[in-house]
Amino acid sequence: MITIRRMRPEDVPEVYEIEKSLFSVPWSEASFREVTEKDLYVFFVASDLTRILGFAGMSVVDKEADITNVAVRKEEQRNGIGRALMKVLKAYARDHGIETVFLEVRASNDPAIALYESEGFRQVGQRKDYYEFPREDALIYTLNLSEYEEPHCS
Ligand SMILES: CC(C)(COP(=O)(O)OP(=O)(O)OC[C@H]1O[C@@H](n2cnc3c(N)ncnc32)[C@H](O)[C@@H]1OP(=O)(O)O)[C@@H](O)C(=O)NCCC(=O)NCCS
């Protein structure tokens, strides 16, 4: 069974291992520790009984949130975990009066772009050469929660 819950300080070493395995410029272990300590950040982990499978988080200032991390273990990808984590972030934002959610993504990251667009995010800009290793543009996406309604099954 997979559950999603808030990230705790004891999750940090495992989260950092996943981060290092997926990104060429990973966040540091200290950065992850900081997000569990500061109210500015809201991070969730998806886990089964034995280990953390993925995580996602955002910084929140007033009525705006910025999704800074979304990651799922390589061998657990394409099982719906990334989408479940995005839905939890959106539900948290909605419940806490956040109106706009932003995120940035590498222009070549087709899996993440497909996930974000299918969760209602729309591209609003592009930052030239924003990323390194390899150098690449960032696409800026936003979701306006006051306008967006979660699709319902009939
Ligand atoms: C992006 C990422 C978080 C998606 O997580 P995931 O658990 O594999 O995604 P899900 O199984 O929930 O898939 C949700 C949707 O994302 C898209 N998607 C996911 N993997 C995809 C792939 N390999 N190719 C194309 N689309 C893909 C699809 O639209 C999918 O919906 P569908 O299964 O109904 O077609 C995961 O691929 C990942 O961790 N990548 C490496 C880290 C990263 O790039 N993070 C984003 C930084 S901005």
What's the CATH architecture name?
Answer: 3-Layer(aba) Sandwich
CATH fold topology: Aminopeptidase
Biggest pleated sheet: 7 strands, mixed
Report strand order across the widest sheet.
1-2-3-4-5-7-6
Q: What is the molecular shape?
A: globular
Describe, in plain words, how this protein is organized in 3D.
This protein has a single domain, classed as Gcn5-related N-acetyltransferase (GNAT) (Aminopeptidase, 3-Layer(aba) Sandwich), CATH 3.40.630.30. The chain is α+β, with helices and mostly antiparallel strands and 154 residues long. The chain starts with a strand and ends in a 10-residue tail after the last strand. The model has no long low-confidence stretch (mean pLDDT 96). It is globular. Helix 1 packs across helix 2. The chain has helices at 12-22, 29-37, 81-95, 110-118, and strands at residues 3-6, 41-47, 52-61, 64-72, 100-106, 122-131, 136-144. Strand 4, helix 3 and strand 5 (100-106) form a beta-alpha-beta unit. Residues 22, 70-72, 77-83, 105, 109-112, 114-115, 118 line the site of coenzyme A.
